[in-house]
Amino acid sequence: MDLTKHHQELNDVGFTIVENLIDPNFIDELTADVARLETELKRTPDNNRFEGNQTTRTYNLLAHGEIWQKIPVQPQVLELIEGVLGEQCLVSSLASISLAPGETLQVIHADDQIQPLEKPHVATVCNSMWALTDFTEENGATRVVPGSHRWQNPDYFGDPSDIESIPAEMSKGSVLVWHGSTWHGGGANTTDDEVRIGVAMNYCAGYIRQQENQHLGLPPEIVATFSPELRQLCGFGMYRGLTGNIEKHSPAHLLYGDQEETQLWDYDPIEHD
Predict the structure, then answer these.
(1) Sign of the torsion formed by the C-alpha atoms of 68, 69, 72 and 76
(2) Half-sphere exposure (CA, 13 Å, Cβ side) for 79?
(3) Does residue 14 contact residue 181 with C-beta atoms inside 8 Å?
(4) For the chain: N or C, fewer Cβ within 10 A?
């Protein structure tokens, strides 16, 4: 798939939608597993201003089934993410979001707004939303603010009603990807019986602390079933041959026998030209 258009949209307006990217059968499997987890974990809305009063969220999905290991490494989505964050980005969080009828507009926000950096800045966060159902304006499609990733030091505590947003409508199996500085928020679900279900697959640059603590949140026996690529994405490798090391070695190598990584000080730029 040629993703040139989508790379350009991420750069220009701060978000892009890749329509009908994911196989429908896999989408149905994910939807069924979301329902399973919500029942087994007894998940209910958290009833707060940000997470909503009619929205059920299940976090730390990599710890809850092998099916979720396929999400972070999806090649087209990962290519777009790396186009924003660069290589060696990390899984920041992975959660399902079931937005039920009666939910109101979520507070418009940027995913990197808690970072004390002047904006605009080099991207530190880039996130995606997988549509497990159709996303429509009526059932609460994610709302985005085009071009907001380039705003100069925006006021995050101003009146959000002054910010004009548009619904990122997309069909089941499509994926929305957005720059971490792009303002967005869940829409209002005004339908009578449609639950809008999505999977939020969030990434951060390799030098940024992850939203979910992957090292403590994932049992070692489950991490052992991951592919080496997924272990790297979860932060069990080193960033640029240095950050995250244990006695100058990659944790993935020491714990799981993955290929040793070249230490920064031993890296030969001529060999890797």
Answers:
(1) negative
(2) 11
(3) yes
(4) C
Q: pLDDT (tens digit, 9 = 90+) per residue, 45-102?
A: 999 989 999 999 999 999 999 999 999 999 999 999 999 999 999 999 999 999 999 9
Residues in a beta bridge with 144? 166, 184
Give the chain's domains with CATH numbers. Answer: 4-212 (2.60.120.620)
What pTM did the predictor assign? Answer: 0.94
Residues facing 90 on adjacent strands: 204
- Phi/psi at 43 (5° precision): -75, 140
Q: What is each CA distance from 84 to 80, 95, 204, 211, in whole angstroms?
A: 7, 21, 10, 18
For residue 216, which phi and psi values (nearest 5 degrees)?
-95, -25
For residue 113, give both structure tokens.
């707004």
> For residue 129, what are the CA distances in angstroms to 42, 152, 222, 234, 258?
23, 26, 24, 18, 30
Opening angle at CA 60, ends 55 and 63, nearest 5: 135
Asked if residues 119 and 153 have their Cβ atoms less than 8 Å apart, the reply is: yes
- 114 near 152, Cβ under 8 Å? no
Contact (Cβ atoms closer than 8 angstroms) between residue 30 and residue 67: yes
